[in-house]
Amino acid sequence: MSLTVVGSIAFDSVRTPFGERERMLGGSAVHFSLAASFFTEVRVVGPVGEDFGAEQLGVLEGRGVGTEDIERVEGGETFFWRGRYDYDMNVAHTDDTQLGVFAEFEPKLSASSRGSEMLFLGNIQPDLQRRVRAECDGADFAALDSMNLWIETARESLLAAIGETDCVLLNDAEIRMLTGEPNLAKAARALMAMGPGVVVAKRGEYGAALFIDGDLFAIPGYLLEDVRDPTGAGDSFAGGFLGYLDGHRASGRSPLDPVALRKAMAYGSVLASFNVEDFGTERVASLTMDEVAERLADFRRITHFEVD
Ligand code: AMP
Questions:
Q1: Test site for ligand 1: of 9, 16, 28, 169, most ligand atoms within 8 A of the Cβ
Q2: Which of 18, 105, 127, 232 is found 20 to 30 A from 157 (Cα to Cα)?
Q3: Does ligand 1 come within 6 angstroms of the Cβ of 129?
């Protein structure tokens, strides 16, 4: 069991109603891999610039994430994102995106990254996602995330990438936008008709819904009293979800096992809930498995009811 992730490795400048930070460590691959590292062996693939230092690498390595395939480009600048959230923290407003070293990125995977059984194609340009999918030929389960930018600017490539994956995780609004279908359940089924057997609709603080052949499952978000920065919640969800599914293979279960998929949804929600408690990677970087287990038990208690 091992999981390769490609996605942005970034510096994020973020403002929320509860504070702001300049150039903190972020990016889809970073948030994803920190969350997934609680359950399985994770390897990150992607470029960084000269401005990316030992301190940032140390955050990933501190959680045991494999950084061998993080390529440092001489003279280059790390991907940069500037965003802000108003009181409705489900909606991120992008003020600036600088692709930096991603503009010229040629994915090169080491033999160990190519041999991972599971692959996560985090939010990056869909043609890059397709190239990594083709290179990672050891993976028997590939999942993909994306965003409105690529739905608007690279729709055909994104549809092709989706057709080559087993699982898609997108925000509910993105699923509607991509399929042109306003009803979420119908939109998710329309997405499944494009290829993936598993669709996860992420619904911000309201939780997430899982669609598989002939079944569906939905859970709320873990209700927190203090949310400071929602950046990376979707990637942390994906990391908890896929990390658990991959880690669970050790006990012989397929990633398509319906019981494992439901538990993976709960772990995804739990990891996302920790991520939003503080800015950037600050909370998840110091999180322990005991805290994860305690919150999972609490989440189960909150969502459980009896039928008489
Ligand atoms: P989310 O989980 O959706 O909140 O993702 C947040 C992360 O996505 C941030 O850490 C950003 O660095 C990253 N991001 C924002 N825009 C893009 C983009 N166009 N391509 C890749 N990553 C992005």
A1: 28
A2: 232
A3: no
Burial of 98 (0-12, 13-18, 19+ CB in 10 A): middle
Of 90, 83, 85, 79, give the one whose Cα is nearest residue 122: 79
Bridge partners, 198 (sequence order): 167, 212
- pLDDT tens per residue across span 286-298: 999 999 999 999 9
Q: How far is the CA of 23 from the centre of ligand 1 (A)?
A: 13
CATH label, 7-303, candidates 3.40.1190.20, 2.20.25.90, 3.30.300.20, 3.30.70.270: 3.40.1190.20
State residue 246 phi and psi, 5-degree precision: -70, -45
Q: Is the shortest distance between the CB of 26 and ligand 1 below 6 Å?
A: yes
Give the containing element (helix H, strand E) for 241.
Answer: helix 233-247
Residue 157: is it exposed, middle or buried by C-beta count within 10 angstroms (0-12/13-18/19+)?
A: middle
Beta carbon of 81 within 6 Å of any ligand 1 atom: yes
pLDDT tens digit sequence for 61-114: 999 999 999 999 999 999 999 999 998 888 899 999 999 999 999 988 999 999
Q: 40-71: buried (b, 16+ CB within 10 Å) or exposed (e) per residue?
A: bbbbbbbbbbeebeeebbebbeebebbbebbb
Encoded amino acid at 215, one letter: D
Q: Is the CB of 231 under 6 A from ligand 1?
A: yes
* Pairing mode, strands 141-145 and 167-171: parallel
How many Å is the maximal CA-CA distance in the chain?
66
Domain residue ranges in the chain: 7-303
Structure tokens at 136: 């990672």
